[in-house]
Design goal:
Strand order of the largest sheet: 5-6-7-3-8-9
CATH topology of the largest domain: Rossmann fold
Helix content: 25-40%
Low-confidence stretches: none
Largest sheet: 6 strands, mixed
Strand content: 25-35%
Distance between the termini: 38 Å
Number of strands: 9
Mean pLDDT: 89
Number of helices: 8
Number of domains: 2
Shape: globular
Order of helices and strands: EEEHEHEHHHEHEHEEH
CATH architecture of the largest domain: 3-Layer(aba) Sandwich
CATH superfamily of the largest domain: P-loop containing nucleotide triphosphate hydrolases
């Protein structure tokens, strides 16, 4: 029987900020090939969890691991294994999508030939006629595709997404979800913080609900219907569960 490698893991993670406990004993694991959707309202601790995996927050207690390495012990090595896509992808508006891709790859120490860069953008769904247009002309969905191409070109082991479908129309959000499924199919572990219950149900293998820094419920996405997920989420949000 083949064992599944855990690529992202939080073990009894505690994070305090100005005497406030933001993360309170979080245990979380995301294996290779899995999309994990982390749901919760503002202040639940979703973004702090992702920031801690990135090494931007120092754990007060416990730790996070990327393939059994912690950011505190080997920050450069750990970040090399991670791709990060925030809610608003920071691209240079005066450059084209293609130029942004090659530039950010070069910053990460990866030289990507022009033909390969075009192919990478096509695989994330950006139409060929947009590759050489300035990013200032792009929709948010198009910018997200360039960000996904940059993340994919890095050949990371795991991908961290923070509200990636916020502000996208339903068609763009659905397209983005399919691209994430393809990324997971290639063996990446994907941790996605989101408010979007529909997107979480559509794309995730596992779903966790956070509240006040704790993981209050966790389940396989295929075992819960959308209306049941909504009921669970709202029950926790209203303090009924």
């Amino acid at each position: 029987m083949t064992s599944i490698t855990t690529l992202l893991e939080a073990r009894n993670l505690v994070v305090n900020y100005k005497n406030h406990r933001v993360i309170d004993g979080l245990d979380l694991s995301v294996p290779a090939g899995c999309v994990y959707a982390l749901l919760g309202g503002n202040g639940a601790g979703k973004t702090t969890t992702i920031s801690t995996f990135l090494g931007f927050n120092k754990p007060t207690g416990g730790n996070v691991y990327i393939e059994d390495e912690s950011p505190g012990e080997n920050p450069a090595g750990v970040r090399a294994k991670l791709a990060y896509l925030p809610e608003n992808v920071a691209l240079y508006d005066y450059m084209s999508g293609l130029e942004n891709l090659t530039f950010f790859c070069a910053l990460a120490g990866t030289r990507i030939p022009r033909e390969q860069a075009h192919d990478q953008l096509l695989r994330t769904g950006l139409q060929a006629d947009a590759h050489n247009r300035r990013v200032s002309t792009y929709s948010k969905g198009m910018r997200q595709k360039v960000g996904l191409a940059i993340a994919s070109a890095k050949q990371a082991k795991a991908m961290l997404l923070d509200e990636p479908t916020s502000g996208l129309d339903p068609g763009a959000a659905n397209d983005f979800a399919q691209r994430i499924r393809v990324a997971a199919g290639s063996g990446l572990a994907v941790l996605m913080a989101t408010h979007d219950l529909f997107n979480a149900k559509q794309v995730a293998d596992r779903i966790g609900i956070m509240k006040a820094g704790r993981l209050v419920e966790e389940f396989d996405a295929h075992t819960v219907a959308h209306d049941e997920l909504e009921h669970k989420y709202l029950a926790h949000a209203r303090g009924l569960q």
